[in-house]
Specification:
The complex is a heterodimer of chains A (about 150) and B (about 200). Chain A has about 150 residues and is an all-alpha fold. Chain A has helices at about 10-20, 20-25, 25-35, 40-85, 90-100, 105-110, 115-120, 125-145. Classes of the chains: A mainly alpha (about 150), B mainly alpha (about 200). Chains A and B meet through α1, α2, α3 and α4 of A and α1, α2, α3, α7 and α8 of B.
Chain lengths: ~150, ~200
């Protein structure tokens, strides 16, 4: 059973590979080996499950945040396109936001002469922008239905 | 960042059943690399749990990507692609530093007449004299001889077969036994070699 081309380095690797083959197919044996080495398998599992739960929550949050950001950027673009077709964009935005009780923003909008449409939108937070985006969608739907 | 489909695939894995084998696999891998790189020590406190944690975190954060279409066997992927990579990076980078330190001076502390860069580029396994690997194999065989007193010395034969790259089926065929006999012998071999693993 000798192969002259094998180095000692390869033989050790092959031995470890052979010995770890059963690690996943015989979990009871893997557990027994860990216990024999002084480890606590239940503690390992508990630690691991908490880690996975934390990471999964973090990943879900990151994905949701990314989706919101992408929606916000699409909304901004749509609104910009729409504002270019409106005679008085400030009045339009002010009226929409007033319907949501956002009277404070009307104060800001009094000082908006000379601002570009992009700058106007930058004054509005994400939540309000998405509301405006939804309203635009509703307007478009009712135009289609008329 | 991880995408939602990959997150779903990762979430579907039977994590509760995976942790113990992952830890055991990583623990053995660290010991294997300690033999390959005898002059390297892991940073203080670094152990199998930290490596496994890092592997799992790298997948859930998207730092490492799992292409589940090309590599559908998750256990194989996380062990051979992720954990091995982490452990290799841990040891190999330190190894290159040690090689430079070893070869720049001879036994008397005088500058050695060698090109360090050429030696660094060569296979590290042949640069360092792997006394630890030789000793490890000798101790392995000693433990097997102590345990297996049977005339047929089945454990030693199975050990040699696997050491030389044969699979269980090939060893079984060569020895004229059923593959289940080889598998059972491998199980006894793992128990026998536990003090070294």
């Amino acid at each position: 059973m000798q192969n002259k081309n094998f180095t000692k380095h390869n033989r050790v690797d092959r031995l470890f590979d052979a010995l770890s083959e059963q690690t996943f197919s015989d979990p009871a044996e893997a557990r027994a080996r860990l216990e024999a080495k002084g480890h606590d398998p239940d503690a390992i599992i508990s630690h691991g499950m908490k880690l996975v739960e934390r990471l999964r929550g973090g990943a879900e949050f990151a994905i949701a945040k990314q989706r919101t950001l992408q929606r916000y950027q699409r909304a901004k673009q749509r609104i910009l396109e729409r504002l270019n077709t409106i005679d008085d964009p400030v009045a339009y935005l002010t009226n929409l936001l007033a319907q949501r009780g956002q009277t404070a923003l009307q104060v800001n909008f009094r000082n908006v002469n000379g601002l570009s449409h992009q700058e106007l939108l930058d004054m509005i937070d994400e939540v309000e922008l998405l509301y405006i985006f939804d309203e635009l969608d509703n307007d478009s739907s009712s135009e289609i239905n008329e | 960042m991880i995408d939602s489909n990959t997150l779903e695939k990762l979430s579907e894995q039977p994590w509760e059943e995976l942790f113990v084998p992952l830890y055991e696999y990583t623990d053995a891998l660290l010991k294997r690399y300690n033999i390959r790189f005898p002059n390297t020590a892991l940073p203080k406190g670094y152990d199998a749990q930290m490596v496994v944690d890092e592997a799992i975190e790298s997948l859930f954060t998207g730092r490492r990507t799992w292409d589940y279409d090309k590599k559908p066997d998750f256990k194989l992927f996380i062990t051979t692609q992720v954990i091995r990579s982490i452990v290799w990076n841990l040891f190999a980078s330190k190894e290159s530093v040690l090689v430079k330190e070893l070869i720049l001076q001879d036994e008397d502390g005088e500058d050695a007449d060698v090109n360090p860069l050429e030696l660094i580029l060569a296979d590290r396994a042949y640069i360092l004299e792997n006394i630890h690997e030789k000793e490890f194999l000798e101790r392995t065989e000693q433990l097997i001889r102590q345990r297996d007193k049977s005339p047929e010395q089945l454990m030693m034969k199975v050990y040699e077969g696997r050491l030389n790259g044969m699979k269980n089926k090939q060893v079984a065929h060569l020895l004229g036994v059923d593959v289940s006999v080889v598998e059972a012998t491998m199980k006894r071999l793992r128990t026998t070699l536990l003090p070294l693993l």
